[in-house]
């Protein structure tokens, strides 16, 4: 297997790939694409992975950092970056996004992993390999396109609806949690520990760099201009890093990155208020991070009602749920240009009326158990 990456990311992407259960066999320049490299890797058995794992002495710094951060502080750190990525404390597991000019192309999930980086392919491979993956059979035929970083996926609306629907599958949510921890959180803990950055807020800043990109470049630029963390102190270094990264984002040649200075502005406010321990509750970009919001059901995820257990029609408040999502997915499979978000609004009702008229049903926009069964089987 292989993934196409920017050459400057070889070291970081090698670490990321090995962390999620693959053995990297090489990283070489792509002769067809200057500035890009081809990272090659293969699946390894658990015994082989154990044989190549770092020695305990090498892993000790990460263990030390992890022990210094409680599960609640870790959840708060991840919530902050979730808010940056999708505007939600728990993240949006079914979020599908396309940003004009974004070299990552199609992005998906709680931490917005991208098609262009190759990470989206790895995430979906992990999901489809699970025997309990509810939508695995739908996604497996398209895995080669994700591995090949096929940019036509940017416009494959049917497949994007399947991705949205996977948010209702606990297997996908848990797969994302594990994947993003292995790909971003754990490497961020090690990187922070190596620099002596031990506070929850400092670790969150490093974690954001791993998720958003260019952590290593911004780390080196900060150290060159302000000094090393052990020389100027953790808080001074993190403050300098946030200012350095903000300047880089604000003046970036990529138009899609410039608006993301809000991430550094949010960190600056937390620094100014002295929230180094990330004590709850916190307010970040108007979103409350508290014990209650951290324990809630992730937004846009549905575990019911079961399809056919109720009629579906336009109503107030709008019908929402798993049955609505699966009906929308069924319409999408039949060529209807519908957004499978699990909410039955006016657009969904109108599209249902059109489908009913075309298929010999009364065009009233009401779906009874029989029609729901027809669309969801």
Descriptive account of the structure:
The protein has 377 residues and is mainly alpha-helical. Among the domains are: 1-53, no CATH class; 319-376, no CATH class. It is built from 18 helices and ten strands. The strands form four sheets. The chain has a three-stranded antiparallel β-sheet with strand order 1-3-2, covered by helices on one side. The longest helix is centred in the middle third of the chain and has 26 residues, at 170-195. It is globular and about 75 Å long.
**Beginning-to-end CA distance, first to last residue:** 34 Å
- Which strand order do you get reading across the main beta sheet? 1-3-2
Low-confidence region ranges: 45-67
Largest sheet: 3 strands, antiparallel
Could you tell me the mean pLDDT? 89
- Beta-strand content: 5-15%
Share in helix: 40-55%
Care to give the gist of this entry?
The protein is mainly alpha-helical. Among the domains are: 1-53, no CATH class; 319-376, no CATH class. The protein contains 18 helices and ten strands.
List descriptors.
10% strand; single chain; mainly alpha; three-stranded antiparallel beta sheet; 18 helices; 377 residues
Tell me the layout of helices and strands.
Elements: E1 2-6, H1 10-19, E2 22-29, E3 36-43, H2 46-51, H3 56-68, H4 71-86, E4 96-97, E5 107-108, E6 113-114, H5 119-128, H6 136-139, H7 143-147, H8 157-165, H9 170-195, H10 200-212, H11 215-226, H12 229-232, H13 234-250, H14 262-272, E7 282-284, E8 287-289, H15 291-294, E9 319-320, H16 322-333, E10 343-344, H17 346-358, H18 369-376
Antiparallel strand pairs: 1-3, 2-3, 4-5, 5-6, 7-8, 9-10
